[in-house]
Design brief:
The protein is of the alpha+beta class and 132 residues long. It has three helices and eight strands. Strands 1, 2, 3, 4, 5, 6, 7 and 8 form an eight-stranded antiparallel beta sheet that branches.
Amino acid sequence: MAKLTDAMKEIITTQLGWIATVKEDGTPNIGPKRSCRIYDDQTLIFNENTGGEIMKNIKRGSKVAIGYANWEKLDGYRFTGTAELHTEGKYYDEAVEWAKGKMGVPKAAVIFHIEEIYTLKSGATAGTKITE
């Protein structure tokens, strides 16, 4: 699995993450996740609050991409990998605790395992895989 660098961590902690999944018919789906945050150097976590298309797609086994960009710096990253839904247990309990005072109780906690990382930095290298 790929590891987060300090530069990646800075963008994740200061910018809004966008989660992309694929519907059963192949249609792409994307949505913002203000709860997306670093779990450890190889994993992100977010609270699934709506239980909509993203949750359905992950439940079905859709691959997932999470993108972050800093408009002012024209820099960013796309993380691809697999996601797991948790509606009870350690991850879910941690997500419920994190949400207190910020948002409602989540329908699930989603653990995202980073497998590949691509640069979104403006210029000739945009979209280049930078780690596996």
